[in-house]
Design goal:
The protein is mainly α and 444 residues long. It is globular, with a radius of gyration of 22 Å. It has one domain: Up-down Bundle (Growth Hormone, Chain: A). α1 runs antiparallel to α7, α5 runs antiparallel to α6 and α17 packs antiparallel against α18. Helix content is 83%, strand content 0%.
Length: 444
């Protein structure tokens, strides 16, 4: 007969596996609207400069809504309902995009999907689950010490499913959209061959609607079983005295302030590279959506082993070292991309896509925040990081809009955007490395 503790652990494991499946499916949807959605908007006549301006609207809206709702999530210690809301908003926005025939639908799509980002709630849920499972394992096995960075291991196990979902859907979407665009009649709204986009966007919207439904039906059922775990966590939270943890942390930890500053600079540069990248791939490959899909397969599939490498590096060298490596990898990728543009061979893009700095960067960021901030501040802390990143993205979008409006349309536009991105990310790497060194000396 199972003990109550063992039963609680089995329930938490089932919840964790359900969340892994949801991660897999939602990231299948993500590649559809995050990559092919931008290409679709561009095909409808929105310029690269216009895409950067839409990006500004996303950042501006999410500044307000995400801040308020993430703070409320931490205050109430409720993640599920906010995650469900974010899924429903994304589904609604994507559904509007699938019927877009004019600028109004595109604007509504950008506004609705910008209202709430699910990622901060997902990260908080997984890290809390990981910590809860470790507490129960410690009690069962009478261990005196918790496995170091165990919650990060759980998060990486969760996020791997997202990488697999993205990798599987990217080539399917590339070939599928291209095939349907060519086989189906011209779209009646635009008189353009875009029916394939619309069909795949409807699929993405359905995935998010179903994800919200599953989370609502199953996650709550498991929450009823973990009162003992919650009591343990509440006792630990009370003893930690974390009421003003975030404010106190920012005032007393210069290293984290440097971290936020470098996130701002990095994302200013990253926005200049990533925002137009899907459109660049389509134009660079002569309009071949199949190559776009394959290239994003090459981008996602290395995340599976690299997430494990990131976990080992974080354990041995710390998240700052691993984050610095991710910056250097991104610099190398941008430099090589700039070099291959004059060559004109789109196949050379494929190996560069495997130089995925995200797989080292994101585990480092989530681990750093989870270690530095108390549980009741994690969603707020993650959101603070996202807001700083969005601030950098805002600056990058302004610069990108200016550059793409001044430089004549064509491949030269992307070269200029990528070179500007390189300058920002190089400066970011220097500041982060030197700032970390100064912070360490100050703590001696």
């Amino acid at each position: 007969m199972e003990t109550s503790s063992a039963f609680s652990l089995s329930v938490l494991k089932k919840r964790y596996h359900v969340l892994q499946v949801l991660c897999f499916t939602t990231w299948m949807a993500n590649v559809l609207f995050m990559i092919f959605g931008i290409i679709f908007v561009h095909e409808l006549g929105v310029s690269i400069s216009g895409i950067f301006l839409f990006n500004l609207s996303i950042i501006s809206i999410s500044f307000i809504t995400s801040s308020l709702l993430n703070h409320h999530s931490d205050k109430k210690r409720q993640r599920k309902h906010f995650a469900m809301l974010s899924y429903i908003l994304r589904a609604t926005g994507i559904l509007l995009l699938s019927f877009a025939g004019n600028i109004l639908f595109i604007i509504l799509y950008y506004i609705i999907t910008a209202l709430l980002n699910p990622i901060s709630f997902e990260v908080a849920i997984i890290y809390e689950l990981g910590e809860q499972m470790e507490k129960i394992k410690m009690k069962e096995k009478s261990r005196k010490e918790r496995e170091e960075n165990a919650a990060t291991r759980y998060y990486l196990g969760y996020r791997l499913f997202g990488s697999l979902g993205w990798a599987i859907m990217a080539p399917i979407a590339g070939f599928g959209i291209s095939l349907l665009n060519n086989k189906l009649p011209l779209d009646p709204l635009t008189q353009m061959p875009v029916a394939g986009y619309r069909i795949f966007f409807i699929i993405a919207a359905l995935i998010y609607f179903v994800a919200a439904l599953v989370l609502g039906l199953i996650y709550e059922e498991y929450r009823k079983q973990d009162m003992q775990v919650q009591d343990l966590q509440n006792q630990e939270n009370i003893s930690s005295g974390h009421g003003n943890g975030l404010k106190r942390f920012l005032l007393t930890h210069s290293g984290f302030v440097v971290f936020l500053a470098t996130m701002f600079i990095f994302h200013a540069g990253s926005t200049l590279f990533q925002t137009p990248y899907g459109v660049f791939l389509k134009e660079f490959s002569g309009g071949r959506l199949e190559l776009v899909g394959i290239s994003y397969f090459f981008s996602a599939i290395p995340e599976v082993p690299l997430f494990m490498v990131a976990y080992m590096l974080i354990n041995k060298r710390g998240y700052r070292f691993t984050l610095s490596l991710s910056f250097l990898l991104e610099i190398s990728r941008i430099i090589l991309t700039i070099f291959i543009i004059p060559v004109g061979n789109p196949l050379l893009v494929l190996p560069l896509q495997s130089m995925n700095s995200f797989s080292l960067r994101w585990p480092s960021i989530t681990h750093g925040i989870s270690q530095e901030l108390s549980p009741n501040n994690r969603a707020t802390g993650m959101n603070l990081n996202l807001l700083v990143q969005k601030s950098g993205g805002f600056l990058g979008s302004v610069i990108g809009s200016i550059i793409s409006s001044l430089v004549p349309a064509g491949i030269e536009t992307y070269s200029m955007l990528f070179m500007t991105s390189l300058i920002f990310i190089s400066c970011n790497t220097i500041i982060f490395t030197s700032g970390g060194y100064i912070s360490k000396r100050g703590q001696r």
